[in-house]
Amino acid sequence: MRSFLKIYSWKPRHGLNFGDHIGPLIVKRILARMGREVEAVPVLGGDNKLLAVGSVVHEARTGDHVWGSGVNGKIWLSDTMRRDGVHFHAVRGPITRRAATEAGHEVPERYGDPGLLFPLLFHDEIERKAAEILVVYRQAGLDFPRTAFIPNINDERYYLPERAELPADWLYISPSSDPVVVAACIRLVDRVVSSSLHGIVFADAYGKETTFLLSRFEPTLKYDDYFLGTEREPVVPAGTLMQAARRSNVPPMTFRAETILDSFPFRDEATAADRLITRAPLLRPGERHSPVEQGDGQGPGGSIFVQGWAVPADGSVWSVGREAELLFEVPRDAARAYTLRLLVGTLPAGHKHYEKIRILSGGKVTASFVVHRGKEAQTIDIPLPPADPATGLVQVKAVFENPSVPRDFNLGQDSRELGVWVGAFGLVEAA
Questions:
Q1: 244's torsion region: left (phi>0), alpha (psi -120 to 50) or beta?
Q2: Which CATH class is domain 277-429?
């Protein structure tokens, strides 16, 4: 049975953005150095999660914890942020702190982007990758470029004429590259030109001469927040590649990145954030389980019902809201495929005469089921995606089309939006 921690991690529709990808990696590595084996599970929403790295503070919900994230200049803090119970340990910079305090939150004056820690935490992997890259260049009889250019992910996705204008002796680094590759390349060059915030962050971590190039799609607010949070004034970005080629504009960083560790939410097990670390039960084929035996998931057995579910009662557990997630471990046998068998039912009355469930994996619908109102419980078999090869973890998301409030249909005083109830579940080997 594995312990896990949900960490918000934005992803583009295709591939990854290295600056958003590093949050779960950094948190997992720090926990491992503390002797705690915890799987960092990237999520795109829900509650009881950690927000670490990225301009994602607007995604915070009641019960969430924030460490080093910041505001997004394209999505200011809306009413979704005006919620009690968001715990702030540190933020990227003072602009984020001001925004969050104005929204009614208590935010300490602790700043810094945890991305600065990546080169330190992954030093060995980065050095190995750097050596591999140099071998390739030497075998080709080429000198490694002295200047690297890394664009913001949206510049690369939508409009980047600079790529065609790049000097022949510059290295182009895609922001969709693996973070270790990005760090290794920055480690090897003398100078970095970047419209990617975390391109600048990695360059700062290595003490490289750096030019901030204006992004066509990103407001400068998050860059200003980062510079202020690392004890520098906001930098006026170069407007063109020609201007960027002529001069550096980012002053050297004197801020000590190691101080970010002082605000790490899990520095000991007495912190409030420790409740975010829960357990993913191991399911074995042929075993039948009841939601009630798993309780609220805080016990030693954990629970597969990790998000969007009520506390089990009366032999079952209800989904609450339009989305819910399941997380569990399966036996790691690459030759076997599994389905998750659920015994489900729904309200006898509600919006439409049925509840429709869509199952998503990797952002795509993989199955759908219709549960009719007023009928007896039925069994559904959810095809499962391949488990994570390193952990055996499987994550399943369910979206409900017609969740209904019992009170609106004379079914008592319950004001929650309920989808389906689950009375039993088990793992089944696929035919």
A1: alpha
A2: mainly beta
Rounded Cα gap, residues 124 and 126, in angstroms: 5
Report d(CA 127, CA 107) in Å as an integer.
37
pLDDT band at 339 (very low <50, low <70, confident <90, very high): very high
DSSP readout, 332-381? Answer: --TT--EEEEEEEEE-SSSSSSEEEEEEEETTEEEEEEEEETTS--EEEE
* Alpha-carbon gap, residue 214 to 227, rounded angstroms: 15
Helix intervals (H) in 8-82: 18-33
What residues does CATH 3.40.50 cover in the chain?
A: 117-250
CA angle 376, 308, 77 (to 5 degrees): 150
Structure tokens at 4: 């896990």
Residues 6+ apart with CB under 8 A from 139: none
Which tens digit of pLDDT belongs to each residue from 14-48?
788 999 999 999 999 999 999 988 888 887 777 77
Question: Which residue spans of the chain are classified as CATH 2.60.120.260?
Answer: 277-429
The C-alpha atoms of residue 181 and residue 177 are separated, in whole angstroms, by 7
Give the whole-angstrom CA distance, residue 240 versus residue 213: 7
With a cut of 50, say whether residue 80 has pLDDT above it.
Answer: no
Spatial contact of 108 and 87, defined as CB atoms under 8 Å apart: no
Place of tokens 């312990």: 3
| 8-state DSSP, 222 | H
The pLDDT of residue 171 = 97
pTM: 0.80
Which residues are bridge partners to 378 per DSSP?
344
CATH number of 117-250: 3.40.50
